[in-house]
Automatic annotation (TrEMBL):
This is Uncharacterized protein. It comes from the Bacteria. It comes from Mangrovibacterium diazotrophicum. InterPro entries: DUF6527.
Length: 130
C-alpha cells in the first residue's frame, strides 16, 4: 500500500504505468495511475465538474473526491492529498450502491444545468482559424 505519490504531466497516457505515479493529461482532462493498494489495476479519473477535480499548487497534487475502486477485487478507497495517499474505510456493498445512485443523479443534474465551458485554447485556436 502506497503512502505517497509523484506525478507527471503528459500529453498522452503512456502504455505502461509506473506504480506510485499519477499521470495527468490536461489535453484529455484525465489523470491515470495504478491502484495504490498494489493490485496493479489501472485507475482512470476523468477531470470534470461532474467527476474529479485536480488541484496543483506548483509542487503537489490533490484529487477530489476520494477514489473508490469499487469495480476492482481490492475495492480500495483512498484520497490523494498533497502527494499523500490517505486511506479511507472499506465500504459495504450497500454503501457503494447508494453512492453510485447519488453520483448518477448528480451527474444527470449537472449535465442538464451546465453548458460546456469554452476553454482558453479553443478560443485562441478559433481566433486564428479562418
Amino acid at each position: 500500500m502506497k503512502k505517497n505519490v509523484t506525478f507527471k504531466f503528459v500529453k498522452t497516457i503512456p502504455d505502461s504505468l509506473d506504480s506510485g505515479i499519477v499521470y495527468i493529461t490536461t489535453y484529455y482532462n484525465t489523470a491515470v495511475h495504478k491502484c495504490m493498494c498494489g493490485c496493479g489495476n489501472e485507475v482512470v479519473t476523468p477531470l470534470s465538474p461532474s467527476d474529479w477535480e485536480l488541484t496543483y499548487n506548483g509542487e503537489q497534487i490533490s484529487l477530489y473526491p476520494s477514489i473508490g475502486n469499487w469495480s476492482f477485487e481490492c475495492q480500495s478507497h483512498y484520497w490523494i492529498k498533497n502527494n499523500k495517499v490517505i486511506w479511507a474505510e472499506k465500504w459495504s456493498k450497500r454503501q457503494i450502491k447508494a453512492r453510485r445512485r447519488k453520483q448518477s443523479r448528480e451527474r444527470s443534474s449537472k449535465s442538464c444545468t451546465k453548458s460546456k465551458p469554452v476553454l482558453f485554447w479553443n478560443k485562441l485556436i478559433s481566433y486564428f482559424t479562418f
